Fold these 4 entries.
Entry 1:
Amino acid sequence: MFRSEYADVPAIELPIHEAVLARAAEFGDAPALVDGTDGTTLTYEQLDRFHRRIAAALTDAGVRKGDVLALHSPNTIAFPTAFYGATRAGASVTLVHPLATPEEFAKQLGDSSARWIVTVSPLLQTARRAAEIAGGVREIFVCDTAPGHRSLIDMLASAAPEPVVDIDPARDVAVLPYSSGTTGTPKGVMLTHRQIATNLAQLEPALADRSGDRILAVLPFFHIYGLTALMNAPLRLGATVVVLPRFELNTFLAAIQNHRITSLYVAPPIVLALAKHPAVAQYDLSSLKYIVSAAAPLDARLAAACSQRLGLPPVGQAYGMTELSPGTHVVPLDAMRDAPAGTVGKLIAGTEMRIVSLDDPDKDLGVGESGEILIRGPQVMKGYLGRPEATTAMIDTDGWVHTGDVGHVDADGWLFVVDRVKELIKYKGFQVAPAELEALLLTHPGIADAAVIGAYNDDGNEVPHAHVVRQPTATGLSEGEVMMYVAERVAPYKRVRKVTFIDAVPRAASGKILRRQLREPA
């Protein structure tokens, strides 16, 4: 068993809005949230006051403890006020992808039994249709304005009394994100107030004081990584969060330059853009102090290329999953220059880990041996909503979460994630990690992006099948050239046996490759 080097932290027995905004009065007029496109700013005092007014108005509208409210919005400065207002009113918040179809949205509404929706006017048609399909939705609110719908802006003038709700942090669900569905049907992940608040405290020793940080929130708040790293954690510590609704490279780079961003929490596709895209050279990014990447594997060479180009410490990584609130590992900020290349970090406070054999799950492995990663700690989810069998399959009787990720630990406690158990390709009995081949493909100057899946050939063998996005200047790049490039650099059993050229690699908002979408046509 591997244990954290950090001292345990006490569980945070507070509702999430109290755990995050407890110091709002202390931070006062300091900017909490800034719209990265038009500069609109909310101070900590305003954020605290506004979310309390929204909680009062939601309560007045009929929201009660135990209700589920669906928050359906891109990143805006209103998102945190809606989230904390809902939790202060006693609701659990289920987070909905802004690009969900009405049918996908309706399925989540039905599964979560959501009775309330908060959305934005551009998405209102989708929200209305989803509510019609699902049934049971009592009211749809908007963050901005729309005829026939109550607005959060109007709610700020509510004279209703602030609700006093008896929240049990250990039992009551604060947030109900849905798993990405990359390996199966999306499931509601029940995360209690104590679990997500304690995870913030667990992360703090490794991330140090960030009260002066200016963080760019471009990854979505509706994903647990964005909710934690870009909303809850920085607002708890007094940082300024500059908000962008989506990733568009030039807007992103301009925001770093104009708002003097100090810290980036991103996914590998953004690291790739920072390392390779010519537009990066047109902007002043000198305010940046560090970059952390998570949500998907990041190749060490790509990380090095990014940091060298920007003149920064090596890009640090973090590791976790929705079912773990989400963090378990991070490269400490004070160790970024010394951490070994490719590591996703060390165990955060209060967290335990085992590495078990892929062939014999009862066999624990030691330093340097690769196996499935198991995690235990106070951040482990309450369970999957309405799916006790799936919960039991994920969390064993001793409280260990079986992550489905393959990795190994070195003698100094650094974790290296190899790949997903279910994504490993078995070629004639040999295991091939798609992430390794993807990282290699990205070193080819003619390849802009790549994804690898297992596909069966005419002999019934599972072989590596690369899906490749050409650089605009490499339109003549052929299948044979790609296969030869890989063959010259890997063992024979790892060779790419098929190449398909595509316009873009399908990814979730978190940056994870949606391999299922590539497998379906294959």
Note: The domain at 424-519 is CATH 3.30.300.30 (GMP Synthetase; Chain A, domain 3).
Entry 2:
Amino acid sequence: MSEAPQENASGRIYNPYLGIAGVLLGAALATFLGRLLSVGIADLRGALHLDFDAASWIGTSYNMGLMFIGPFSVYLGGLLGPRRVLLACAAIFSVLCAFMPFATHYSLLITLLVLAGLAAGTFYPLSLSFILRNIPQRYALYGIAAYAVDIVVSTHIAHSYEGWFMTSLSWRWIFWTDACLTPLMMIFVYLGIAPQPLPQPKPGQPTPSWRGFLYFSLGAAMVFGALDQGQRLDWWSSRTFVALFVTGIFLVVCAAVRHFLLPNPLINFPFIRRRNPLLMAFVLVFFRFMLLSAVVVVPSYLASVQSYNNQEVGPVLLWLAIPQIFAGLFAVYLLGRIDNRIILGSGFALMGLGCLMNASLSSAWSGTNFMTSQLVLALGEGLAFNGLVGSLILDILNSGAMSRGIDLLTFSGFFQTIRLLGGEIGSTFMQHFLQTREQFHSNIVGLHVQAGSPATNERIAGLTAAMGAQASTHDVALGRASDLLALTVRKQAFTLAITDCFLLLACASVACLVIISFLEPLKVQYKQLLASLKAQRA
């Protein structure tokens, strides 16, 4: 990890810090577009005149592209080098984002979204490996903080930003935001990442093959799409779901069989089959699941029960970026002084505590009622994600993989796959759990709201009297009163289901703490690394 600017054979000087800024910006842009597509799906439906089923494939198509190219980035990065891949994909991504609002046909829009996902999906796996190999070791902790802020904070600003441009600009800025910022990323990459010669296979070494990557990437993307659409398609009763899921699993198995029969020199599976990387993969899945508390569960409650729009939901989430930044910096400070597992566990404990605080909500809660619990969650997210990224980097440092580019690419590709696929599994399970619990509570509450019962008649009579002044006849007032009572039942059932979601997330944090307790202690912690570097400078 060199601190000095790099100079190539032609004498051109490249500043690796600009390269780091470029890959961080790229990772944020890829994440941000996905969040905007999710948050702004209702506005896209209206602008593009799409029904619910057609619009549901907008986010799925983009994320399937991300999922496909994640593992394949290992092949591309090892074969062509990060500079060539990032510059080409960033240019394609920027052009696609600029033209997507003008797609006149639904099939064309979906095709462009898939291509955009394929281009943007290279940003994330290549970013971490480049940062690790180019940032000086004494600044590694600051790199961790920047990387964590880059990924986590971008997920919390989408509601506010989408609400603002829908009010002041146009829905087209869902795409144009990335189209405008990606050229800046390209400038940073061009000035900060030195070109590398194309690798030549060593004598007797197997020739790199793209087939195994293609099988696995395509299979993972199809499984992702099946999970993303499963709830809407009613799972195994849908031929589309069955075709996607079964075919995806078959391709993943084919990729595994091919790798063991014909090992690929661009991937090193034994490096990630160690105890700590496998356990931290589960921790990453749990973190993505816990993150749903802030980015999905709370907005769902506010939108469904309190009828908040994105502009009103935004402030509830936006301010969390500030405590997350401070928590991240505090986590970086602690990483240089105590065991990384303590920081990681403390973060998940705080996230679980925040979920327990939210589990006491009622249908009368508004955005301000979440302030304290959201603060606890934000602090937990900052500690947990910085602790997780710090643990991953510390494992790489202890393994000696910093000088082995293939190991770094394998590591990054593996965790990109886990980040996307594991996050989708958690999101899919949460959607299914929320719907199931809402149906359960609706049935239970409905048992106490039966037609003809004294309590129901009394409530209907009161609502009818309240509606009398606004209705032309008694029958109209009675109909409106019945609708209001049904709406009250639905709101109460949804509130109880949201409470169950928070309790589930709290239980997930406890399960993750158990996994963290099984992480092996690493011989070299950041405090030893920093002390060694300080002694060398002295």
Note: The longest strand covers residues 6-7.
Entry 3:
Amino acid sequence: MRLSSYLPAVFAFTIAAVVSIFSASFAVEQIERTSVQQVTTAMRDKGYDWVTVSANGLQVGLAGTAPDEASRFRALTVANNIVDSARVIDGLEVAAAEKIDAPHFSIEILKNGTGVSLIGLVPAATDRAALMDRILAIKGAGQVSDLLETADFPAPDGWEHAVAYGIRALERLGRAKVSIAADQVTVSAISDSRLHKKQLETDLTSVKPAGLELVLDIAAPRPVITPFTLRFLIDGDGARFDACSAATEQGRARIVAAALAAGVPEPVDCTIGLGVPSPDWPKAAEASIQALAALGAGSVTLSDVDVTLVADENATQADFDAAVGQLEGALPAAFSLTSVLPEKAEQQSAEGKGPPEFTATKGDKGMVKLSGRIRDDRARTVVTSFARARFGIEKVEDSLRSDEALPDGWSPRILAALKALVQLNSGSIVVKPDVVEVKGVSGNPDARADVTRILGDQLGAQGKFKLDIRYDKKLDPVLGLPTPEECVDQINQVLAARKITFAPGSAEIDADARETVDKIAELLRTCDDVQMEIGGYTDSQGREVMNQQLSQARAESVLTALAARRVATANLTAVGFGEERPIATNETEEGREANRRIEFKLIVPEGAETAASDAGTPEGGDGADAAAADAGTGDAPAAEGSGDEDTITGGAGTANEQN
């Protein structure tokens, strides 16, 4: 057969193949376009704008990043509902989940007379059974209600220490609320008295872990004041209160405003207490203060509803009458007024040596010396027996002399003055015919008011007395403050137990030493008025000048670290002694290690001496020797090439130890 006879058939098949291929391509393209359009429209309708749709033949590809796995699955379902699932190519990804922050863990512990309730959120790893056992072990815990929730997150730093401290605090409290967080514990409670309040505050502060913030809100009940007393005076030392009492904040504000107008410097202390004899007490106190201010000098005393106005002996009769008239018209009806214009007393003793006196002095060790005039042997027995009963048999020295010409009521005045002396840690009393003088130091912030009530009650409405009583917080048994020597010893014991480390040849304190610095800072907060020297020492290796500069820099670095912990540093002095005053040999490594140290030393001002026992007001106590002569300060750069190594140890000796 000839080839030409096949050509039409071949041509026809070729044309048919081309048309078929073209038709198939057109159909596939149409299907791709339609599938992409339909799937894209459906995705947009559902709000899945993050999905990108593409086609490859009959296959439909999905790409994009879903916000979560559920959204990815829903987008895939939308595509499967439009085209066959076998044609869908899943290229969707899921965004990485954001890190979930740990919740704030806290516990509120409520303790009352019937039981303890725990409310809050704790880590899931918390041993709830052990926690309940610790609560149940507290005396008086009663029934314990566990209302805690848990969250599966790790415990934050400090959580275990905070919980342990919160439970220790709960052991010391009656009715209370203890709020525990990882970095802070808040204690709200009611104490039995001011003394109990101070004891609780001292106890809770002393056992607080380093780095934990403690917030105390401990309320004390108002004291019962009897008699309800106010004593205001104006003399050569200015205007002031010996005692001030009020029943309410509003009444206190009214009294304080009258005192400020009369010339009392701020701040004004006025105790709010129970026992007010009349709701008109603020009005009576205000009128009394204003009358004395108009008189210019003297004293006015309110004891319950009895008011006594005593003018200065130099006041004129006209001024006195005007002040008395003013006060009589202003006092509320329930109050009675006694007014006195004293005369100058010039009574002579039997021996003609001026006005008679009785004196008692109390030294800082409790020894009491009685001297001056007493009426007779019987009065001597009464006075010395009373003194020995109050101060101790072995602590009373009798140097009294008889004088039968003494005025009436002499012995009761002496007994009243001795009662006042009991309120002082050290001081003196002087009894004269016209006045009783009390001077000294007390660790009781209310001593002045207490002495005022004692003398006012014992001497009567017209009794005249002068007070010069100073409060010294170092003597306050409630605060329990250490002596200056104890301050230095405690700090050096901390340093001896654990070294303060530095980078080699540098004054930068290592992180490992922070706990030691924290402990020293806690101790210094109870010794904020004690003058101390921070001494830096090195071994003898390296050049002497470089060692001195390095020791100075490190001592100053310790001072700076304490200041950063909010410690008052005005009483601290940094001194670098270099290789001076070695406490061990520099021939061995152990000796050199001992010589590299920081020591705290008590600074005693030049010429300061302990007050004599008969002075009544101690000026200081036995302490360490004064700091050594200045070793030079100056700039202290890092001492390159110094033989000193990277640690400074604390001195183990007391403040008096010679270096």
Note: The chain has five domains: 3-94, 106-219, 229-340, 358-475, 484-650.
Entry 4:
Amino acid sequence: MPAWRFSLVVFLLAGLAVLLIWRVVSLQLLETRFLQNQGDARTIRTQNIPAYRGVITDRNGEPLAVSTPVASIWINPKHMQGLVQDLKPLAKLLEMPAASIQKKIIDNRERGFVYLRRHMSPEQAKAIMALKIKGVNNQQEYKRYYPAAEVAAHLVGFTNIDDRGQEGLELAYDEWLRGSEGSKRVLKDLHGSVIRDIDQQREAESGKELTLSIDMRLQYMAYRELKSMLQSSKAKAGSVVVVDSYTGEVLAMVNQPSYNPNNRNRLNPAHMRNRAMTDVFEPGSTVKPFTVLAALESGKYKPTTLVDTNPGYIRVGKKSLLDPVNYGVIDVTKILTKSSQVGISKMALDIDEQSTWELFGRFGLGRDVGSGFPGERAGQMPSRANWRPIEIVNFAFGYGLSVTPVQLAQAYAVLANGGLMQPISLLRKDQQEQGVRIVNTHQAKQVVAMLKTVTEKGGTGTGAQIATYTVAGKTGTVHKVGSNGYADDKYRAIFAGMAPADNPRLVAVVMIDEPSIEMYHGGEAAAPLFSKVMADALRLLDVTPDKLSELKEAVAAKPELVTGGRKSA
């Protein structure tokens, strides 16, 4: 072999050795950071740490919405193509056909993330991960649970599967309740399974707690009574709102029909409405006290002012307005006691209609209460430059305008609070706000005194009486609007009132939609329900009865009231 060939081979081998040594040095010393980054990019991943959604409670701390830890199973179809392992054990634990899992793998072959099942118990997820199937992973999440179920569903609302508020206060205060997710770095193997946690980059921040104004004792009681009443009367729907007249806090707000937010498999969208906040109706005779108050403010009338209602009807334009009987000459108080259409019409036509309209507006009718509840309706107040006589009288006794139950409750709370308006609140108030003066205290108390007679013997609302408390309130019965105008056989029955009447603590509004045609008047359908709800609410709040002397006299006269009809020994 020629010497140059030998030298060339030696040179090439030596050069190759040098290149190998240089590459080793380069990899170990010069390119360490680059290679480390490349390795990390293939094995280290950042995962979100879910935040705990804030708890919703009633005013006394009873939980209404809580989050519980769950696990969701997902797959990486790219890692499962051509999988030969039996999927039946996985399908059994997931409670789904193996063919469905195989179809998801095939249909999503280009994707790296597909959910198999959301919100399983941690124990179920642990059993699935123990199968050690390539490409199957789990992630921690939270699921919302509602201990009060349908009783508080309309107010609390619910979240979707991703824990985002969808209805009610869950939606209104979603950002407050949600918190912020954290993140951590994890080491994964070739198949995408987590081997271990490396470090935490950002700590998850839990959502804030939300304390509602409602008292679940009152909420349960009101819901029970409303549901029972609707079942017995075969009514279409109904609402009850109970408000603390001192603070404006809503202590109970219930509707029927309702739904269970924990089980929404057969959810009827019509049952999801918080009717007390979103449904508007003509309030009928329940606004007559405000027309009377406008008359008192005009200076032309006092509670004892006489009004001639003869001959029992009044002709306004082409329409005749009737009373059930001819009441003759009666005072303003009796006009409210008997809910005289003729008396209210004559008073409304005698005073400035704009002053009546302005007073209704002062009491919050025709505008939302500012609670921030999603979908809250404002109702409607007519606005006219020139009022026809029939429009004046219709407006005076509650037609031609629309309100929600909570608006009507706010208006009556002003009367109960001596003319001061406290903002309606669905959240607990830790400090009482300073109310806004709407009317003077003397005239507000005069109207309340007149409303007491409505529930006394001879009034239209005797069904609202409570044995141990005085009650002031007003009945309302209105025709519903149909496709061809007002329907002759469909009504809304309403009662709005307060107790104890001499120093009102609570205000309640009851609205029954399409009660039985045999008992459709406000005094028959709504007033008895008001009595039950208000009596239990006052007892639960330990409000001192103001009719003890009358009760003692009644018991002395009829001992069987407390002995159940049995003779005492």
Note: The first helix runs from residue 3 to 30.
